[in-house]
Amino acid sequence: MQNEPLAFRMRPRTIDEVVGQKHVIGPHTALYKMIQNGHVPSMLLYGDPGIGKTSIAHAIAGTSKLPFIALNATTSGKKDVEEVVAESRITGKVLLFLDEIHRFNKLQQDALLPHVESGAIVLIGATTENPFHDVNPAIRSRCGEIKQLKRLTHEDIVELLKNALSDEKRGLGNYEIEISPAQVERIAEGTNGDARKALTMLESIVVASDERDGKYIVEDQMVEQMIKRVGVFGDKKGSHFYNLLSALQKSVRGSDVNAAMYYLAHLLENGDLTAVTRRLLVMAYEDIGLANPQVGAHVLAACQAADRLGLPEARIPLAQAVAEMCLSEKSNSAYKAIDAAIAAINKGDTGDIPPHLKDTHYAGSAELGHGGYKYPHDTPLGSFGGWVDQDYLPKEVKSADYYQPVIAGSEKKFAGIYEKLKSFRKKK
Q1: What DSSP line would sit under 211-230, residue for residue?
Q2: DSSP state of 392
Q3: DSSP state of 13
Q4: Can you tell me the distance from the alpha carbon of 180 to that of 177, in angstroms, rounded to the nearest whole number?
Q5: Residues of the chain whose pLDDT is less than 70?
Q6: DSSP letter at 101?
Q7: Which residue, of 138, 248, 382, 404, has the fewest CB within 10 Å?
Q8: Measuring CA to CA, which residue among 57, 54, 97 is closest to residue 76?
């Protein structure tokens, strides 16, 4: 086998060799046509690891024939940037590929940005983080294209694997390898749209397979062992992880049990139990709320059980909690009410606390005008308990109506009580 990794050797040499990402650089796109016509704009490529950001940069360099320099923002300093600038003065326009661009510091920016703006340097930045959150606006403003790459499809990965198996110059085409179409499909399934993992796994499987009479014999057991060892899930704290959390909550809110289980499975395979349980607790109160108040206690119990059990057993109580939330009645009225109150306060809709609600547990409170509070428990109201008609809000915001009940589940009863009490107050 060759010294360079298969994933490195199989990088596309031109944009016509790029597999997948047709929405970004397919023949029908404006970017493809610009590059073919000799114009390469500065751009940001955003997406999960292993889906082609570096490969696309290499392919653009190969097609445009521009001098290509690659840096990583986590390890490069101002001197490295100055060397790129010096290179552009000697050779003319340079294509700079900057990985982890969201870590670009101010000194690097100051040295590089004027040359990007003048067109002497074409900047292709790559990041796994959302560029609208994590990339400096100065960088974004100089990149005419911000492209989000997608995970490669199963068919894309199969195509990459077949290309690697047949390519005699860069791939494994010079080796006799006995590997079935079903095994190629299984490798594609086991790498979750990550091209680098797929090619690395293929090479590792071939190298680890038994060699008989000059032929590598790939066994199903070896394929499964490698899939388990390499793993298929992404960075715990990258954008993809937070997208999974978002998708889980939106699936629960949308009452889709199957989708919620799918995203929960992805999250648990990442292994960050704390982040998952925290989000589930938020969901119980944000999305189920007063429609089914018992869900909050149920989810808390499930999260506590999960913490005590640890993975993989933690999946059992968490799956139950997610299923219950999906199929429960839903209301966001309580959290919308507190948000409305907070917004009103920040806007300045405030007033003085009514005198009868102020503290009277000290000598002199009466002289300040405090007092006159009526104790509701002394005035029973049917089966409701105690209630008395008195003002609780400051007079300046007396008519505020932050809470808007949702007529769902248990909140139907709460809504009825709320409206009845409002009607009592209107009789004053």
Answers
A1: EETTEEE--HHHHHHHHHHH
A2: -
A3: S
A4: 9
A5: 1-3, 229-240, 426-428
A6: G
A7: 382
A8: 97
Q: At what angle do helices 154-166 and 181-189 cross, to 10 degrees?
A: 130
Q: Is 371 helix (H, G, I), strand (E, B) or coil?
A: coil
pTM of the entire predicted model: 0.59
Closest by CA to 123, choosing from 145, 151, 150, is 145
Q: Are strands 94-99 and 68-72 parallel, antiparallel or unpaired?
A: parallel
CA 103 to CA 76: how far, in whole Å?
Answer: 10
In degrees rounded to 5, what are phi and psi of residue 287? -105, -25
Spacing of C-alpha 90 from chain mean position: 42
Identify the three-state secondary structure at position 279.
Answer: helix
Residue 296: its H or E element: helix 294-309
pLDDT at position 278 = 92
Full strand arrangement of the beta sheet holding 43-46: 68-72, 94-99, 121-127, 43-46, 145-148
Predicted pLDDT at 2: 60
Q: Is residue 172 within 8 Å of residue 207, measured between CB atoms? A: no
Q: How many CB atoms lie within 10 A of CB 327?
A: 12
In angstroms, rounded to a whole number, what is the distance separating the alpha carbons of residues 335 and 404?
10
Q: Residue 268: what residue type?
A: L
Contacts of 79 (CB under 8 A, 6+ apart): none
Q: How many residues does the chain have?
A: 428
What is residue 260's three-state secondary structure? helix
| Domains delineated in the chain | 21-148 (3.40.50.300), 154-230 (1.10.8.60), 239-327 (1.20.272.10), 348-426 (1.10.3710.10)
Over residues 284-342, the pLDDT tens digits come to 999 999 999 999 999 999 999 998 988 889 999 999 999 999 999 999 999 999 999 99
Cα Rg, the chain, nearest whole Å: 31
Q: Encoding tokens for residue 1?
A: 């086998």
| Tokens matching residue 343 | 């917004």
Integer Cα distance of 160 and 195 in angstroms = 8
Helix (H, G, I), strand (E, B) or coil at 188: helix
Query: Amino acid identity, residue 92?
Result: G
**Please, are residues 275 and 239 in contact by the beta-carbon 8 Å criterion?**
no
